[in-house]
């Protein structure tokens, strides 16, 4: 009746019954022949269809342009392209300040990369061009390699009849400085492009997955902070020194505070008004985005009004306002990167390449998911790499994408890359004809536009409390990356955040969760006994322990695994729970003279954590300083009979069915089999395999059979790749054979029950032990 009631509680009308053979790994391979992997030759693969697919993969424009629906998409792309082009012009000029180069190079950076991405890119919606974070990373390198101090020259004083050079007064040679700075920026841009193309060709776009969302969020927030600090000097228009590296933001603030009395009121007012107006109108655009057909291009309006006011009032001459000055028409001639600079910018270029790609592909995937198409990560690497190489040769700095600019392109009706190419045409018009109209524009207005566009990045701080409630480790990654990037600088901070993130992964796998499983009666379901201890349907199978480790097993967590292996199999405590029992062991050794000359190879899973006999008496294992025995040789040569015998532990082998050398009462132990669930173990390394093999042998020597089971179809398991790895690691031998492997925990349990019912009626775990050597 009890069993019937249990079945009534555990089974319902929708349950089903499965009948099949009990499968060990060996039997399964014999019944179901493994399918041989088909290896196609190069000639079989290189068909015309395959070649066309490859060409379209490298040149996506050949795939989407012939299918372009002109009537449906072209009107929206034209409106979007014109609007986005105006924003690109202004953001390009503004972000040139972050890169520490002349504003005209920002226009080049908003034009050239779009041309190549139009041909090679796979995203239909992102707006390619300058991005504040990458611009700031380029600017930090530019200021490091080309500071103002390198371009000082004596001041020429013009008299009535002659020009005299005064060596006591120095001024900055602006032309030489700008030439060197753009050379550094272009060289770095080409190197960034080479890194991206190389990663794309090697198909390593997956590496960006290591930049998790919390890490990217913390990094971009810190970058927004650095951008804000860098623009303060432009808003207040005070002279400061260039600072990079550790605590650079603090040194910048100190310089600004020291020279705050030199603040230009005209620039300060213009900058603050720009920030307030741009942010307010952007809020209106966001709030009424469903009612306004096209977002208000507030940046364009502000720049036009500010340029007109500055020109009419002559703010530069009358009030000393800092203006753009030179914005020449036309394009600069192409230039070759300076090879001598590569060694100095190698590390910064790689980190900038990774950040630029990570941001761009993240934005691209957001809009691809929204509009139901896919983005090829590796092709995006090639597209941005070629764009940066091409742009770097034409006086551009690193290109990525900006979320605000992409949002404008998508919200104004952009459907494809055609909107991007039209925006490039708008930028070209400004470069060729309208550039001089922006020359009276105050730099503080551009700085205000930059700061106003940082709101989205700063708002990421509001995600921290939510992240803390969801996952505290991810929240710590966000905070650690943000603080490290603020204090140490963007390059070192990103590396520190990545190391911290990888450290959390190592810690989580080094101390994995382990569990003892129980069976839901009359089912093949096994659950954690601890989680379901109050549920009547969970029952522990008599005589069998089921142990599960929810992690890969490797050198860093094998000791923790063995410790949990022992703790979850508590029958050791019932055997060796008293010092008296250990003393009886020691007396038996001493009486029978059971010491041999071989050092103790590995402690028993249960006995060693309590006491071990040696010639000095019973000694805790911890005091013996037992080292990791994974690489110990299993054969140790015997010492000569007359040689001195070192203090050593003795190897203990327990036969539960034999007589003790002395009369002793041993507690009854009802364990005869141990099943290890490998369903969550994705790999073993050489250290783990050797250590696990020794543990399995120790259990076998005390009469406990060990079985390995588990396959969920999602990770390499005992039915395939895992077995090959174990064979390669020499896990199997005459004592530990492949017969211990089973497809599932339930197969192993049924096999054990079958063996127990048809085997010896006596309990294999008798109440007596025998010490053998």
TrEMBL record:
Its main location: membrane. The lineage of its organism: Eukaryota, Metazoa, Chordata, Craniata, Vertebrata. Keywords: Membrane, Transmembrane, Transmembrane helix. Signal peptide: none annotated. The keyword Transmembrane applies. Pfam families: STAS, Sulfate_transp. Residues 538-752 form the STAS domain. GO terms for molecular function: secondary active sulfate transmembrane transporter activity. It is a multi-pass membrane protein. It comes from the Eukaryota. The keyword Transmembrane helix applies. This is Solute carrier family 26 member 4. One of its GO terms (cellular component) is membrane. It comes from Cyprinus carpio (Common carp). The chain crosses the membrane at residues 104-121, 128-146, 182-208, 260-281, 345-369, 381-404, 416-438, 444-468, 475-500. It is found in: Membrane.
């Amino acid at each position: 009746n009890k069993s019937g009631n249990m079945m009534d509680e555990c089974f319902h009308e929708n349950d089903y019954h499965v009948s099949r053979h009990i499968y060990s790994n060996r039997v399964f391979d014999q019944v179901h022949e493994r399918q041989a992997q088909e290896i196609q030759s190069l000639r079989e693969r290189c068909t015309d269809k395959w070649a066309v697919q490859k060409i379209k993969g490298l040149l996506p424009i050949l795939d989407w342009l012939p299918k372009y629906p002109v009537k449906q998409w072209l009107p929206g792309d034209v409106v979007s392209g014109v609007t986005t082009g105006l924003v690109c012009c202004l953001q390009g000029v503004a972000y040139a300040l972050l890169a520490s180069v002349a504003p005209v190079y920002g226009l080049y950076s908003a034009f050239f990369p779009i041309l190549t991405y139009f041909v090679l890119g796979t995203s239909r919606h992102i707006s390619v061009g300058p991005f504040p974070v990458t611009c700031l990373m380029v600017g930090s390198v530019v200021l490091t390699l080309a500071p103002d101090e390198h371009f000082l020259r004596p001041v020429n004083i013009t008299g009535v009849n002659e020009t005299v050079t005064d060596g006591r007064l120095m001024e900055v040679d602006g032309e030489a400085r700008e030439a060197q700075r753009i050379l550094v920026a272009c060289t770095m841009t080409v190197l960034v492009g080479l890194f991206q193309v190389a990663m794309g060709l090697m198909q390593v776009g997956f590496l960006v997955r290591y930049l998790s969302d919390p890490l990217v969020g913390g990094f971009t927030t810190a970058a927004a902070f650095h951008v804000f600090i860098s623009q303060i000097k432009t808003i207040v228009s005070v002279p400061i020194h260039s600072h990079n590296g550790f605590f650079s933001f603090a040194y910048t603030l100190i310089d600004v505070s020291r020279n705050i009395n030199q603040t230009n009121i005209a620039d300060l007012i213009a900058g603050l008004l720009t920030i307030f107006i741009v942010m307010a109108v952007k809020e209106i655009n966001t709030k009424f985005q469903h009612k306004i057909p096209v977002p208000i291009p507030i940046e364009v309006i502000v720049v036009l009004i500010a340029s007109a006011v500055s020109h009419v009032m002559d703010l530069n001459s009358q009030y000393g306002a800092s203006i753009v000055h030179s914005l020449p028409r036309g394009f600069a001639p192409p230039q070759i990167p300076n090879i001598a600079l590569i060694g100095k910018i190698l590390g910064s270029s790689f980190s900038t390449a990774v950040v630029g790609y990570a941001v761009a592909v993240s934005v691209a995937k957001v809009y691809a998911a929204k509009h139901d198409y896919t983005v090829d990560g590796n092709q995006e690497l090639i597209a941005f790499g070629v764009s940066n190489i091409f742009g770097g040769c034409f006086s551009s700095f690193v290109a990525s994408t900006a979320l605000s600019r992409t949002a404008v392109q998508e919200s104004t009706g952009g459907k494809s890359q055609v909107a991007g190419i039209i925006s490039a045409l708008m930028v070209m018009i400004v470069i060729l004809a309208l550039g001089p109209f922006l020359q009276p524009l105050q730099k503080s207005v551009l700085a205000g536009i930059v700061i106003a566009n940082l709101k989205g990045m700063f708002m990421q701080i509001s995600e921290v409390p939510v992240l803390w409630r969801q996952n505290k480790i991810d929240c710590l990654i966000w905070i650690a990356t943000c603080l490290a990037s603020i204090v140490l600088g963007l390059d070192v901070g990103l590396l520190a955040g990545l190391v911290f993130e990888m450290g959390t992964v190592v810690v989580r796998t080094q101390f994995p969760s382990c569990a003892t499983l129980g069976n839901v009666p009359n089912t093949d379901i096994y659950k954690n006994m601890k989680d379901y201890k109050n549920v009547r349907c969970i029952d522990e199978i008599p005589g069998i322990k089921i142990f599960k480790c929810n992690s890969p097993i490797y050198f860093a967590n094998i000791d923790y695994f063995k410790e949990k292996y022992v703790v979850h199999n508590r029958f050791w405590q019932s055997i060796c729970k008293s010092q008296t029992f250990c003393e009886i062991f020691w007396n038996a050794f001493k009486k029978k003279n059971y010491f041999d000359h071989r050092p103790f190879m590995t402690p028993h899973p249960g006995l060693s954590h309590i006491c071990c006999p040696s010639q000095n008496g019973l000694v805790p294992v911890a005091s013996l300083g037992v080292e990791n025995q994974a690489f110990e040789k299993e054969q140790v040569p015997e010492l000569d009979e007359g040689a001195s015998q070192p203090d050593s532990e003795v190897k203990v082998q327990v036969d539960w069915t034999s007589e003790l050398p002395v009369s002793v009462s041993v507690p009854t132990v009802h364990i005869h089999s141990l099943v290890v669930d490998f369903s969550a173990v994705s790999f073993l390394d050489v250290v783990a395999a050797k250590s696990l093999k020794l543990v399995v042998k120790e259990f076998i020597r005390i009469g406990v059979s060990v079985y390995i089971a588990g396959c969920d179809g999602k990770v390499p398991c005992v039915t395939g790749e895992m077995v090959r790895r174990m064979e390669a690691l020499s896990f199997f031998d005459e004592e530990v054979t492949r017969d211990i492997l089973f497809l599932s925990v339930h197969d192993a349990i049924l096999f054990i029950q079958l063996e127990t019912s048809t085997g010896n009626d006596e309990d294999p775990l008798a109440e007596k032990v025998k010490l053998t050597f």
